[in-house]
Write a structure and sequence with these properties.
The protein is an alpha/beta fold. Helices cover 32% and strands 21% of the residues. The protein has 13 helices and 21 strands. The strands form six sheets. The chain has a six-stranded parallel sheet, with helices on both faces. A five-stranded mixed beta barrel has the order 17-18-19-21-20. The termini are far apart. Bound molecules: S-adenosyl-L-homocysteine (SAH), iron/sulfur cluster (SF4) and FE3-S4 cluster (F3S). Iron/sulfur cluster binds next to α6.
């Protein structure tokens, strides 16, 4: 049997050039249409917002082939696992999951299992899956989501396993179909990939070169979302401040923010901004446009300059704190969150204390905290690390106590106030309770009458907790 696998290569994935990436337009081949008629698919999504948005593209492709989405994996003819590779834990979860899917394959031998996302871009993971997880029929990468219909067609017609993963710098693919999973909030990619190469991070290898979409394509997408009744867009990129740089045009993320604001969409968010390149045009644009939400996620990763240098983060402790202070002063009332890694190779007690003191300085509204996880192929994987796992766990716990303390402290400002909440829906645990987010990205659980997903309602806050607020709708 012919086995024409295209496997990932970390060496190829590391390459970068200064050329403007190719913009290509997707068209579905007629022979794939109707292939899924009467059949169902189920998608499991891991990882970040980029993956959430990619899953919506996968759903769009399958819908165009005639498949229907279902919410029970046991009823599915195709199961897609969209994976994350950012930490070891994320990968182990996926392997456990596909291990469990083997049982479904025994019950239904025609079931097709496809694995996509960032794990598919890793040599080692693909090798493991090829050897030990025979139940996986398709492996496709982050650069060729559009190949999914072709690969499904080939598996159905030849009953052989298909692996197609590209490790080049990537293209910008437009006109892919999309089935959005929400009707009031939408993810909008503004750029793909990452060129920052933080020494611990696998993302530049799994997502390719930084490449921006044309501004016209982004603005058109948001305008269409407004027409469809969407209330919020979140502009996505691993490092949104770098928007436009790869296109060599005189148009930056700050300019894009202003233009997206002009579409009149109620709420604009963006993820993730890197402290590097957070320029004054951006600050001005955020300040001037009421529909850009008062919330900034600004990963610090560490509060120690030595560790930041080893992380290749391109800023010192002092530079981060100076930027933070400037933002805080110019953007009063905004909420700020961050990402932190503890236990980076050979992080000393003193270095960790610097992270704690930086946290005390910034008093973040919230933080995503992680223990460093070794990623094969990254520069940090080769660094000596003599710090015990138990020490790292203890540091994480100490940091998390601080996170909870300031989260609670920061939330107190909302006690008894009236906030605007974009309603996400009814709570899974209690059908009388609704939930949604304030402009500052605070989760609010509240009660009231005549409430629908997508409404923006006024809620009086009656109770404040560390990670959420409780309230009652007011008219
Ligand atoms: N592009 C974003 C983050 C993407 S990954 C940014 O630069 O902010 C999300 C977070 O995962 C990172 O901010 C970092 O805190 C964490 N992370 C990335 N690689 C990691 C690793 N090897 N071990 C532990 N945490 C990691
Ligand atoms: Fe990873 Fe750094 Fe790029 Fe963020 S900026 S995705 S942490 S390499
Ligand atoms: Fe994970 Fe890939 Fe996102 S590694 S965090 S899914 S870019």
């Amino acid at each position: 049997m012919k086995k024409d696998y295209i496997l990932p290569s970390l060496n190829d994935a590391r390459r970068r050039n200064k050329e403007v990436s190719k913009n290509v337009s997707f068209i579905m081949d007629d022979s794939y249409k109707g292939l899924g008629e009467g059949k169902h698919y189920y998608i499991i999504t891991h990882g970040c917002q980029a993956n959430q948005r990619d899953s919506e593209t996968m759903a769009g492709l399958l819908d165009q082939m005639g498949y229907s989405m279902c919410d029970d994996e046991k009823k599915a003819d195709v199961i897609i696992v969209n994976t994350c590779a950012v930490r070891q834990g994320a990968e182990e979860k996926v392997l456990g999951e596909i291990g469990a899917l083997k049982r479904l394959k025994t019950l239904n031998p025609d079931l097709i299992i496809a694995l996509g996302g960032c794990m598919a871009q890793e040599e080692e993971s693909v090798r493991t899956i090829m050897e030990k997880y025979r139940q996986v029929d398709i492996i496709f990468g982050t650069h060729n989501i559009y190949s999914l219909p072709k690969l499904l067609y080939e598996v159905i017609t030849t009953r052989t396993r298909k692996i197609e993963v590209f490790s080049g710098m990537g293209e910008v693919v437009e006109s892919l179909p999309v089935t959005r999973f929400m009707s009031h909030k939408a993810w909008v990619n503004i750029m793909y990939g990452c060129d920052k190469f933080c020494s611990y991070c696998i993302v530049p290898y799994t997502r390719g070169k930084e490449r921006s979409r044309q501004k016209e394509d982004i603005i058109y997408e948001v305008e269409e979302l407004v027409k469809q009744g969407y209330k919020e867009v979140c502009l996505l990129g691993q490092n949104v401040n770098a928007y436009g740089k790869d296109l060599h045009i005189d148009y930056t993320f700050g300019d894009l923010l202003s233009d997206v604001a002009k579409t009149g969409i109620d709420r604009i968010r963006f993820m993730t901004s890197h402290p590097w390149d957070f320029d004054d045009t951006m600050i001005r644009s955020i300040k001037e446009n009421k529909n850009i939400m008062p919330y900034i996620h600004l990963p610090i990763q560490s509060g120690n300059t030595g560790i930041l240098k080893k992380m290749n983060r391109r800023y010192t402790r002092e530079e981060y704190l100076a930027l933070f202070d400037k933002l805080k002063e110019q953007l009063p009332g905004y909420s700020f969150t961050t990402d932190i890694i503890v236990g980076f190779p050979n992080e000393s007690d003193e270095a960790f204390e610097d992270t704690l003191s930086a946290y005390d300085h910034c008093q973040f509204d919230n933080a995503f905290t992680f223990i460093y996880s070794k990623r094969e192929g990254t520069p940090a994987a080769a660094m000596e690390d003599l710090i015990d796992r138990s020490v790292k766990e203890e540091r994480l716990q100490r940091l998390n106590e601080k996170v909870a303390y300031y989260a609670n402290k920061k939330n107190q400002r909302f006690k008894d106030s009236i906030v605007e909440v974009l309603v996400d829906g009814v709570s899974k645990r209690n059908s009388n309770v609704y939930s949604g987010y304030t402009p500052e990205n605070k989760l609010v659980n509240f009660t009231g009458e005549n409430i629908h997903t997508g409404d923006i309602v006024k809620v009086k806050i009656t109770e404040v907790m560390s990670f959420s607020l409780n309230g009652v709708k007011v008219d």
